């Protein structure tokens, strides 16, 4: 039976439209997978030596064990967003004579071979090998390795149970943030305490039973969870959400574009995919931390200009590059209704501008890094509003990928909205602010760079009508192509 | 009202629709029947400028539909579920369409009040998004939305499919009432010969993209159609 399921899965995979969509995307995906795998591999092989050099007094294994708690918490949080539950199309199997047991075991077995379970192995396996080569007790090391594997799989099944529940997820996220804060500001040695647990597991090989039991328990729990829901009216049918209606009358002040704005606000609040984008763009706010805290970038202000643009541009870019794909599900309606493209575009533009302003306000804590940095963020925000918004909207028109609004994006199959054109469009977004800043900076001084970057944005706002007209023309030119493309279900 | 000139649509050399000349006068209730693949939806899509004609064109009230958008204010349609915005409630959807067609909330409410029977208490105040309604109820919402804003041309693709018997009867009543108003041109496609003969003054049969029959509806029409389709 499993064999037959596997062949069905293979057909579903190889015949799905995104699979047949061009070699470039496949290569990029493989590259991305290789990249992440490679990063972990390098980390796994070198972690031992790095830790040994940095903390010569401590045992690298102990240090790793101390921080495992964060590793696993991050794993849970990350999976919640990226790992999609492999909801096999159960319906057709409900009425044909296959044991439910078989279907559920297959379903769970399928999640076990997920990329998310292999990724940690890219770290743990080389790390374990290094330990063995370094002459650590093989029994302890091997038992530890399998414990890690079991923990990872436990998280995998746990994710199944959690994915239905936002509250638990946010609790874990809060725990994670609090844990990092507590550790970072030396309030409480959380890592050390949690490390006791993992170190014990390392020192007493028979303790492998703990994660093993945990894994078995969670597997059984998940099994019975699915078993109970194996009816048409239970988990398989999609849940009907209770509706929270709101008139959104405060948006009426935007005049002509108000109806579209209301729709867009509802679009974002009521669908899974846009919510995901909203969350991701929130993370962009922290992008600056990587750059501003790193001394090597301080001598390369052009990179800082790029980072500053990212701080306020997260939503703008991730939402904007999928205009009009967001409306793909009902694009035919929009095209046959009494809708001027212009107002449609302006609504999206306004939304993006508001997002930039909100991000800008939220980014005020960056003043901590000095007014130079904050000035850069301000100039970057202006660039986003005036130029980046139009470049992104322009890229979106050429995108033409249908999108299922209420389905979360899958990790590593997230080809929706990704093609070579997007890459080309990304170039001016990335190098634009760098160049606009760098030339006057090199020729005159830092302030001149800022002023030029800010002015470029202001110029964009002045020429708003010109840009919108251009984009509108492309919309008109591509109308039929877009309708046809959106008609193909993703 | 609607005039078709040498219209054809082909994909990779295969012609799926070819209509030389077809005139639909203002106020007519016009029915389109044909088996699957006969070109009904293709014709409606061309009429709404959702696909591009391979040759010829359609004029809607003197406006060439694939050259100007001036037909949009007086034309409305419901073709399939992709005309619904799934994450809105029915009310929100009606008001949105209303705003696009220059109708305020009160106007829309007034219109909706006429359809209380048709909705059968399953559309309004449901606290449900359109995507969570059943297929039949989605269709009801879509059809009524197509009547918002005093359109002069109404295009409905298979409006009777998926509806329960009661609603089918009510819909027939609604279409008949609309047809009586002299300035509304209504275009319907259907697989149900009885329904279409009941509500349409004129019936055109499409087969493999060509018009094979053009009948002014009379007592004998149903028989004629049944004979034709049982060939």
Automatic annotation (TrEMBL), chain A:
Highest taxon in the source lineage: Bacteria
Transmembrane segments: 23-51, 63-82, 103-129, 141-161, 168-188, 200-219, 277-294, 300-323, 349-368, 374-397, 418-440, 446-467
Assigned keywords, A-Z: Membrane, Transmembrane, Transmembrane helix
A Pfam family assignment: DUF5687
Protein name: ABC-2 type transport system permease protein
Species assigned in the record: Mesonia maritima
Lineage of the organism: Bacteria, Pseudomonadati, Bacteroidota, Flavobacteriia, Flavobacteriales
From TrEMBL, chain B:
Keywords from the named record: ATP-binding, Nucleotide-binding, Transport
GO molecular function, one term: ATP binding
Residues annotated as signal peptide: none
Keyword Cell inner membrane included in the entry's annotation: no
Ribonucleoprotein recorded as keyword: no
Domain ABC transporter: 2-230
Family annotation (InterPro entries): AAA+_ATPase, ABC_transporter-like_ATP-bd, ABC_transporter-like_CS, ABC_Transporter_VariousFunc, P-loop_NTPase
Species classification: Bacteria, Pseudomonadati, Bacteroidota, Flavobacteriia, Flavobacteriales
PROSITE patterns referenced in this protein's UniProt entry, alphabetically: ABC_TRANSPORTER_1, ABC_TRANSPORTER_2
Top-level taxonomic group: Bacteria
Protein name per its UniProtKB record: ABC-2 type transport system ATP-binding protein
